[in-house]
Specification:
heterodimer; A: 7-stranded parallel β-sheet; 6-stranded parallel β-sheet; B: mainly alpha; 3 helices; elongated; disordered N terminus
Chain lengths: ~1050, ~100
């Protein structure tokens, strides 16, 4: 009877602590009367104990009370398991489990969703599916649900059904925690809890706490010797116990535990939380032991040495018989050994490192908690506080990881003076380790980021000094390590330290000794530089002064250059997207660019507007000119091919500006120029014309000079570059989409034009920028340069999917002569032709010829001569291809003349050095497919010429994001289809389409028809008429050249 | 407080009848919300807790320490992998 009572009591403790097995529960149920009697006695005993410990004082009280409360709740829950459930109540909201802490819900409730539930029972996760007031799912539905949710696919066993409130029972399956650990922690740590009840999530979170402990190394081996001794032997096993368990975490988990967690196995929140955490720890440790090679165990464990060897060999927890006395002794000694980390009530020592006062030392102090919730020095605590033994154990633990705390020569226990080197070691290594093992470590704020040195130039301009690039300012030099400013003396002091530390923004930062040496050298080098000009200071501001330090130069103070930099940084604060006088709306980056040009204008500086092709440099400049209208004239110098664009865009966006195009044979003569541009806001000319008429242009006063496609001056020694530098202007603007096309030399040439002398010499510019073009663009962006690219997300976000640009191209004298000759011949032919059909045929043939001439004289009649320099369209195409290739992108060129397309492909291949194919109807299907495949697969600069007929439909050529429609077709849908080879599904970039048109020619008539206009060359065509109805004069008007619109390339 | 201690203490106390009636629990109650997850950090030395205790009280304590440390370090790696899969592993670069 006594033996039976002992077994029952052991089972009661097992179950009430949340680790009981189904067998143990069955044992209790087998003798329910005796079990309940024992339980009642134990409950009374623990209630009395609890009442006693409530009178305790000191830090331990709270923990001991919590411990007894848990024990009591566990026993009550176990008793509840054995007592029959009370009759169901109408609300059916109760279950048979008992918990003092959780009030019963009494409000009416709505039926809940069926979710996966998990209960904890004797080391197993019991899973079922039900919800409040809903019918539970059967096993098949449960299996499907588990599979859908991603539960473990193996390891499940059928489990007795789970009784639910109201009498229903839910089918259930069970799995050992070790087989479900990965699944549970994934749920515990994840965000997606669809279909998963709070009990599953709770078990996952509890298991994660076990994972956290093992990850931290907070686990210790213990030896369990228990059960009945048989022939002097006792069953013994190694158990891995969680260490440094955080009581706060357990209490929080307990408070958050859903009732469904204990719907099978009973128990209260705290004991269940500890049981799950412990089971997770044991599962991971078992996995680790399985992967560790351990010695073979001795045959038996009857002697001390054999027992110890067996313990090491059986770290997997497998039980073994051992001499009862020896095993009990070792179990007790091991428990004492590890108690300091398994005892939840251990005193937590505070280890604090204090920053030194100036000239002082670093000091580590150790203090211990008192019973009154305060801290006292460990030395005092060990003399006066109770629990000296546990304090000593913690002190010894501290000493094992931080031997310096016990070193010889310490005047007072718990106060250790440290060198800077030791302090850094403590901050970075020892301190974090002590925190890991459970000490309360308090460190000065620390940054692991290495302090970055930079040279600080402080400039101050004398009062009443001249403002501008020639302003002479007094300067001084210091070094900054992040935000810490150090003089030469400070640097010398720092250099003497074994481990230099500085305190930056309240955090200690280690300084690299090499950086200190470099800083000292940089300061020594500049010791005698006490004055600098505005230009020199500005050069330092943009990183062109050199420093030898990783952080470059930071310029502070009060000088012209400082004002410039400050103004530049404030430029884009409030960009105006609809400036006065500008018809249209600027994109944000365009508005920022306008504000930047305004800043340059106000500062008397020049700059490079480096927007990618297609981002709208022309409207941006026009918006600035609209804002500053009336402040002075602007001279725009552009390639002949885009002069027409400038005029057209000015008419479109800034109709209020008075624009003069100074170009072509009919341009104003030297004598007439002043009169012609007297009232103008903007004069547009070409590079060649500007050079030719340079003296007249120099004689005029210009507020702004704009160089479009400024790559034209990238050779600073060229005549064009030299001559254009002679034109004075308040602001010089250079526009280019490729500012570093051939390297930093290009950029220097442009910047040296826009701000002569400011960026220093070409070699020093390239050297200071370390030859890195992109770095230079970043350094100068917003000050002397405004760079935006299509790939920048904020730019791309504002761009449409496709941009259509109309490029007005020039006609060379050869083109004009041929064009006129063909027209004359047509007029003569038509006059001599009687039949309407024949007349029509002649006209159509002539139209084709005229279009070919607009393309290129060789497109009309191949004379075998080189193509270079004979067509404005070809020149424009070459510029486009050059820009596209410079950006590393790909372009499609469409023409509806296949023969011309092949010539074009050969010519572009020769000019660019990139093999360029022509896709036309003469190729076999296999060859055509190969061309498309190769074009799509290749990356980087590339082009393909396509005949509109063969390549205009069906193909997928999304590798290109530029399309050039070299000649026009009557039906705009055909052109759209051609463009859509690149702009289609799979295209992730903005597609820029260029339509090349020669104004004043048949090209433009096509453009008018494409635009749906019936007005052709001032003729209104009757709705049903055709060109064949026109008389000679009308024919000349319809097809002939219009000199006032024609862009004649007369200056080459 | 061990079970034996509790029993021993209990036996010295006067028994008295159970006074409290326990209220049944609503298994469908809404529990307190779970606290936010603190990211799991990986210490530089997983065996530090063990090292802080010194060698275990065994005759070949240092040998035992070697095995214990190996198992604990290996377990820490497994735990880190579990934490990573649960997306709760702290960013080691965080300052």
């Amino acid at each position: 009877m006594i033996l039976q009572a002992q077994q029952l009591e052991a089972a009661i403790w097992s179950i009430s602590e949340g680790r009981g097995s189904d067998d143990e529960l069955a044992l209790l149920r087998a003798d329910e009367r005796l079990s309940l009697s024992l339980l009642d006695r134990l409950i009374i005993d623990v209630e009395d104990d609890l009442e006693s410990v409530r009178n305790l004082r000191g830090d331990e009280r709270e923990q001991v009370v919590a411990d007894f409360t848990d024990t009591l709740n566990g026993l009550r829950s176990t008793a509840a398991l054995l007592r029959p459930p009370p009759p169901p109540r109408p609300q059916a909201v109760r279950t048979e489990f008992i918990d003092d802490d959780i009030p019963m819900a009494s409000e009416p409730w709505e039926p809940g969703e069926v979710q996966l539930q998990a209960s904890w029972s004797a080391g197993q996760v019991v899973v079922w599916a039900a919800g409040r007031g809903t019918a539970p799912e059967g096993n098949e539905e449960l299996a499907t649900r588990l599979e859908t949710i991603g539960g473990p696919s193996v390891g499940w066993q059928l489990h007795p059904s789970v009784p639910l409130p109201g009498g229903a029972r839910a089918d259930a399956v069970a799995i050992p925690l070790k087989d479900a650990l990965g699944w549970l922690v994934a749920i515990g740590g994840g965000d997606d809890h669809t279909g998963v009840g709070p009990s599953v999530l709770w078990l996952g979170r509890a298991a994660l706490e076990g994972v956290r402990l093992v990850a931290n190394g907070s686990v210790v081996p213990t030896v369990r010797a228990g059960g009945r001794a048989d022939a002097g032997l006792v069953e013994t096993s190694v158990r891995w116990a969680p260490a440094l368990l955080d009581g706060g975490v357990i209490n929080t988990l307990a408070a958050a535990m859903p009732g469904t967690v204990v719907a099978v196995g009973g128990g209260n929140g705290r004991t269940t939380a500890i049981a799950v955490v412990t089971a997770a720890v044991e599962a991971i440790m078992a996995e680790s032991v399985e992967r560790t090679e351990l010695p073979v165990p001795p045959r038996n464990a009857k002697t001390s040495i054999d027992l110890e060897d067996t313990i090491i060999a059986r770290l997997d927890g497998s039980p073994f018989p051992a001499n009862a006395n020896l095993a009990t002794t070792i179990a007790r000694r091991m428990e004492q050994w590890s108690r300091t980390v398994t005892d939840l009530t251990r005193p937590k020592l505070v280890v604090q490192l204090a920053s030194p006062a100036p000239g002082g030392v670093w000091l580590v102090t150790v203090s211990a908690p008192t019973g009154k919730g305060t801290m006292v020095p460990i030395d005092v605590a060990m003399r006066t506080e109770g629990g000296r033994r546990t304090l000593m154990a913690e002190w010894q633990r501290l000493g094992r990881l931080f031997p310096a705390v016990d070193r010889v020569g310490i005047a007072r226990r718990g106060q250790v003076a440290m060198s800077q080197d030791e302090a850094w070691e403590f901050m970075t290594v020892v301190g974090p380790t002590l925190a890991t093992v459970g000490f309360d470590v308090r460190l000065p704020a620390l940054s692991r980021r290495k302090a970055r040195p930079s040279l600080r130039l402080f400039a101050e301009a004398p009062a009443n000094s001249v403002v501008g690039a020639h302003q002479l300012s007094n300067v001084s030099w210091t070094v900054l390590f992040d935000d810490v400013e150090l003089t030469a003396d400070d640097i010398r002091r720092l250099a003497r330290q074994a481990r230099p530390l500085v305190q930056s923004s309240g955090k200690w930062v280690e300084v690299d000794r090499f950086d200190v040496q470099q800083a000292a050298a940089a300061l020594a080098e500049r010791e005698k530089i006490t004055q600098l000009t505005g230009a020199e200071i500005l050069r330092h501001s943009v990183g062109l002064g050199g420093s030898g330090l990783a952080g470059g130069v930071v310029v502070h103070g009060n000088s012209w250059a400082n004002d410039i930099v400050r103004s530049a940084s404030a430029v884009s604060m409030a960009p105006v997207t609809q400036p006065d006088g500008f018809t249209g709306t600027l994109r944000t980056y365009q508005a920022e660019a306008v504000a930047w040009i305004g800043f340059l204008d106000a500062a008397g500086l020049g700059g490079c507007l480096a927007l990618d092709m297609g981002l709208g440099k022309t409207p941006t400049v026009l918006a600035h000119l609209a804002r500053s209208a009336g402040d002075g004239k602007t001279l725009v110098i552009a390639p002949a091919a885009v002069v027409g664009n400038w005029a057209a865009e000015a008419a479109r966006f800034t109709p209020g500006l008075r624009v003069v195009v100074h170009h072509g044979a009919a341009r104003a003569s030297d004598d007439e120029l002043d009169a012609e541009i007297a009232g103008a806001d903007m004069v547009i000319t070409t590079y060649a014309t500007a050079v030719r008429d340079i003296e007249e242009l120099i004689d005029n006063k210009w507020r702004t000079i704009v160089l479009d496609e400024a790559q034209a001056i990238k050779n600073p020694t060229s005549d064009t570059s030299q001559q254009l530098r002679r034109i004075e202007a308040t602001t010089r603007l250079a526009l280019t989409g490729t500012p570093i096309e051939n390297g930093l030399g290009d950029l220097w040439a442009i910047l040296d034009f826009t701000n002569p002398g400011l960026v220093g010499s070409r070699p020093s510019f390239i050297a200071q920028m370390s030859g890195d073009g992109e770095a230079a663009l970043r350094a100068l962006n917003g000050l002397l340069l405004f760079r935006r690219t299509k790939v920048e997300p904020e730019v791309a976000a504002e761009l449409p999917d496709k941009i259509d640009e109309l490029d007005h191209c020039t006609m060379t004298p050869e083109q004009i002569g041929l064009y006129q000759a063909v027209l004359d011949e047509l007029v003569a032919t038509v006059a001599d032709t009687g039949g309407l059909d024949a007349k029509k045929g002649a006209i159509l043939a002539a139209i084709t010829a005229l279009k070919q001439i607009c393309n290129h004289p060789a497109a009309y009649r191949d004379d075998g001569q080189p193509l270079e320099g004979r067509s404005g369209k070809l020149a424009r195409l070459e510029e486009i291809v050059e820009s596209v290739f410079a950006a590393g992108e790909r372009v499609l060129v469409f023409t509806h003349f296949a023969t011309w397309g092949r010539k074009l492909a050969d010519h572009l291949s020769e000019v660019t050095g990139v093999p360029i194919a022509c896709y036309d109807g003469s190729l076999t299907r296999a060859v055509r497919d190969r061309l498309v495949d190769e074009f799509q697969r290749q990356t980087g600069p590339g082009a393909m010429v396509l005949s509109l007929k063969a390549g205009g439909t069906g193909l997928n050529l999304t590798a290109a994001n530029h399309v050039v429609l070299y000649d026009r077709w009557w039906n705009p849908a055909v052109e759209d289809q051609a463009r859509d080879r690149a702009w289609r599904i799979g295209q992730s970039r903005t597609v820029i389409s260029h339509r090349l048109v020669c104004p004043g020619t048949i090209d433009e008539r096509v453009e008018e028809i494409v635009n749906g206009k019936r007005h052709i060359a001032n003729l209104v065509l009757p709705a049903k008429s055709s060109l064949a109805d026109l008389n000679n004069e009308q024919l000349r008007l319809a097809l002939g050249l219009r000199p006032d619109e024609l862009l004649a390339e007369d200056d080459k | 407080m061990s079970r034996n201690q509790r029993s021993a203490q209990g036996q010295n106390q006067r028994r008295r009848p159970q006074q409290k009636r326990q209220a049944p629990v609503d298994i469908w109650r809404d529990p307190a919300p779970l606290a936010d997850i603190e990211p799991i950090t990986i210490p530089s030395e997983a065996g530090a807790v063990l090292r802080s205790l010194g060698d275990p009280p065994l005759m070949h304590g240092s040998t035992a320490t070697k095995y214990f440390t190996t198992v604990i370090e290996r377990a820490a790696v497994i735990a880190a992998a579990l934490a990573l899969s649960a997306e709760v592993l702290a960013d080691p670069e965080a300052d």
